[in-house]
Automatic annotation (TrEMBL):
Protein name, entry field: ABC transporter permease
Membrane-traversing stretches: 26-44, 50-68, 107-130, 137-155, 175-196, 217-243, 255-274, 286-307, 313-333, 390-411, 417-435, 447-464, 470-488, 495-519, 539-560, 590-611, 623-640, 645-663, 669-687
Protein topology in the membrane: Multi-pass membrane protein
One GO term describing the cellular component: plasma membrane
Amino acid sequence: MNSAAGLTPFSAGFGLRRALMRNRGALIAAAVLAILLFIVDWISAGPLTYFDVSFLSSGGATSALAAIGQTIVILSGGFDLSAGAVISLVNVVLASSMDPMAPGASILLWTAVGIGVGMAVGAFNGFFIAVLRMQPIVVTLSTMFILQGVTLLVMDKPGGFVSPDLGTFYLGDAITGWLPMPLVVIGVVLLAWFWLKGTRFGTALYAVGSDPDSAAAVGINVVLVRFAVYVIAGGCYGLAGVFISAQTGSADPLVGNPLLLSMFAAVVVGGTRLGGGQGGPVGTVFGAYILMMVVNILLVLNVSAYYSTIAEGTILVLAALAGSLSHASVLAVQLRAARARLAAWRAGILPSQIEAVDRRLKLAGTPDGQRGPASPPPAFRLRNAETLRYALPAYVCLVVIVIVTQIWLGRAILNPGYWNSLLVLSSFLAVLALGQGTVILTGGLDLSVPWTIGISGIILAGMVNGSDAALLYALPVALVLACAIGFANGFGIAYLGISPIVMTLATNGILQGFALIYSQGTPAGFSSPMLRWFMTARLGFVTPIVLLMVVFVVLAVLLLGRTPFGRRVYGIGNGLRAARLSGINVERTLILVYMLSAVCAAVVGIMLTGFSGQASLGMGDDYLLPSIAVVVVGGALITGGRGHYLGMLGGVMLLTALQMLLAGTTLPYATRAILYGLVVLGAVMALRERRLQ
């Protein structure tokens, strides 16, 4: 008798139910996609035709292909923020390399070139993440900025030429009138995934994503698996770059930037669990087309395209929340804890309702209420040995940069104007370092900084419009808005259990949409004369903002080093469970941390508006990696628990001095992004080596 004949109805039903539960995310995504197709068919002028299906299939193919690569990375327990930059790089490489005079182009050759570029970037990421065991977030974020600089070096503005043969092949029909080629390309990639999933590597991939330590214990080569994951993912990004090149027929150095948010949203909507070990690319493909259908529905309903990032960010948050719901989820735990606190309050047994009694142990041989003789405090050098060890290198390197500037450009060391300019330009990152640095000290990351800066500056400039009197209400409005943004980030992370990366990335997209809607794509208004005076005037040899920054630095040092809030921040960064057991209110502290980060970003938006005289879209884009770079270069540990604001300030001045040195040379602007990425990678690698010694 064969094994199939021996199956009972119960075992067959149990196996089916288990398969349905295992693929629940993909099945739900498929059902949602079917509903959206029905809605599109219903609100359209006529029934969907083959042309409509072909158009929709090509519209979501780029995002779907890139999201497949992102899914494989997330299944292994990682993140990849460089995906959009890889797509842009492949796009400009193809458009700058194809010969417009050639009668035809080899589709296979250029497809291989695009995939090869992506795999090379994936190998770069994989080396640092798998071999050197560095954090995926900081490595891929650094790679993103390096690639953006390389892309601008290849082509600094839209243009170039992509052979029409590429578009004819990838956007045409596999079977005329029946089967669009984009669906065939996605199908081939999914078939390759199914084959890969059935191999030992596929099993190892899910094992590493579920528990890397257990995977290593059973003999899985975790390093090799993680390295291969990023190489494969890079190939998917490269293919997405080829596809978007076929769609556009030319190049745009920024074409891949908007895809990052939709990529993560597609992965989460498709049912892949953030953290790894569960999900797959099939659901991700459905998720990518769901997002595209939502945007198309908004367009059919004559809703502004500015709402697209708001929709994507909202869908990402809701999908991440829905995917994490379970009995053991953070939200479920918080609800049970709230119910227990309510019951304790009704019973009058909350700690705040009980009379305070000194329960400390009495020291032997001392009268009650008295302490024994206090031992002398250790020397300053011993008390601050770790801080000095990790913070001093930034100041040493700063001295080296200033000396090089003096030798190369002259008029630096003894020039008051140089030092004033250095301090003014450092003021923006010095403020951001407090917010982003505090977030990093807790083990998180705030990716909503760029558009928190942008929307704060845009709203302030629009309300002030050149009036000093308007600052009295415009400043509080901008800061209260920042508090609301930070509260939303902190609440989603602390109480809903959403990953800091996902929550702040979604918030950044939502803020971008609101900024576009508020300004209608063209920010209006100007800075007030008083604000501009603070940022650009001179009091002798010093700009007024420098004097304010001295006060800010003192307050920042006291906040993180001398207050209960600062001690709670370090406690959370050193261990979440230990922090809870020691009595720290983790949720409240995290909310305050992200509110502080948002307020710091808003202050920078206000300062930039005063410095330049007006606000602009994307004014905060150049500050994301530098805000992380100065914290890491200043000696903070990217995983949290270690760092000092004075070290971060040293990182701020070091990178600003380096930026001023580069500005005085003939090197192109794109080198700044490359340099920032390399500096962050080098700093993280150096600090990792020191920690292991």
